[in-house]
Amino acid sequence: MLEFKNVSKIYNGNKKAVDHVNFNVDEGELVVLLGPSGCGKTTLLRMVNQLESITEGDIHLNNKSVKESNKIEMRRKIGYVIQSNGLFPNMTIEKNVMIVPDLLGWDRKKQLDRFNYLMELIGLHPDEYRKRYPHELSGGQQQRVGVARALAADPPVMLMDEPFGALDPIIRTKIQDEFLQIQKEIKKTILFVSHDIDEAVKMGDKIALFRDGQLQQYNHPFEILHRPANEFVSEFVGQDRVLKSTSLYSVKDLVDSVSLTGYQKAGSVQTVQEDTSLRIVISKLLNQEAEQLAVEDTKGKIKGILTLDLVEKFLYKQIKETPKRTG
Ligand SMILES: Nc1ncnc2c1ncn2[C@@H]1O[C@H](COP(=O)(O)OP(=O)(O)O)[C@@H](O)[C@H]1O
Ligand SMILES: [Mg+2]
User: Fold this and answer.
1) Ligand 2 (single-atom ion) residues, CB below 5 Å
2) Which of 18, 167, 238, 305 could form a disulfide with 261 if both were Cys (CB 3.0 to 4.6 A apart)?
3) How many CB atoms lie within 10 A of CB 303?
């Protein structure tokens, strides 16, 4: 779907901002471009929609070089979301969201339906926000509208440059969760820039980790966490990488892999749902909120008891059993 072929970028004949980068992105995948500030993430992203030229190498979108595509047409087919949402302050929310469909000459009815659909998708009531201006929305709401605008003409590809980076941590977590839900429905091919390993692990089907313009490792989050390709990756990922990997699993994954301790009805035990993230379970167990937790299935039936020992057993199994994947 998207192929980076030996891509380099040199600004003004100076040092390489992007240095011989090779990787492919499959259709419907969300790939996080990760790395410290200045490692070339934004540059790489902007070469895809040709906001930056490619110095050397090429990028293919659906087997066609982006250099040979008509820039204006291509940008309409690629959704672009940036950190400072980029909404036009003097245009209503509806006008902002419908910029590209308007340019494409969609009729009024089609635009209205699309606007209503997108606003519902991002969790804002269409009629309540239609005539408002960006400054009349909170930062989180503006960022959601930025996402809706990028999705407006249903582009197959989305480029998102630290889209939630300016939001405070609680709002950011909420928007990340919402966006993952949306992605389940829309299944876009997405390049998502981040400098935050936690965000990358949470959002990415795969992570491409960069240093000084060079790709260090490209693989599933689990692989990056557990099999760092070199010392830089290992350091970037940090000490608590096993703990980080727990956000990749739910209680259900654990139940499917190791057997729970039997449940005796003596005393009261806190319950957790099967769809709870293992990371949340661990923080409950580690914070002494509970020594054990009763696992409840969707019908409210208790399946057994979960303890820290079992979590440990499960993680150990994952690390040992996950076959080495190359990507
Ligand atoms: N327009 C530009 N002109 C010259 N150098 C640039 C320009 N944009 C970015 N750079 C340089 O290219 C490198 C990569 O920048 P960037 O892609 O913005 O990194 P990131 O998004 O990972 O923070 C940095 O050294 C930056 O200073
Ligand atoms: Mg950047």
Assistant:
1) 42
2) 305
3) 16
